[in-house]
Specification:
By secondary structure, the chain is an alpha/beta fold. It is built from 6 helices and 4 strands. A 4-stranded parallel beta sheet has the order 1-2-3-4, covered by helices on one side.
Length: 187
Amino acid sequence: MREATADRLFRDLAAGAGEELLLINNAAMLEPLGPIETLAAAAMSAHLQTSLTAPMILCGAFVRHAQRLPIAKRIVNVTSGLAVHSAPSMSLYCSSKAALNMLTRCIADEQRERPYPVFAYALDPGMTDTRMQTTARTRDAAEFPLQRFFAESFEQGKLQSPERVAAETLRLLEDDHPNGAVLRAYA
């Protein structure tokens, strides 16, 4: 994500804003998977660019261009339970989600005294049937220790549909929440 592109996007959106502006950062990478000592620097960099740097750039541009508007402004950073629970062979995924949670809290702290604050939330969708889940459950179990956990969760029907998560997210966004809160789209 280029900063100039993000600035242009949010400058245009802010100029035509209605009653609310909402940014949802949902991009993330699962891979590379493996013990930290096996991961190449280029793969680490690509992961962090997509999963952390791009959301940071988008959040910065969103706040920069929406801050002055006297309307509702919200950022929703999609996180994971793995932001607070470590997992073998998932160090990059867990770390980038934990950093996204901290980014959300920092934005909330920075906005606390602003006249027209931007509200930032981390959204934990719970276990959802996505391509990331498919990748995790179809990996070689010898290479990925949690493969069986992901496969069993799918087989036991523990995954939510993306449609259900989207509906619950919209419902959650109808309510007021403390700035910086982690919202959970599951029971």
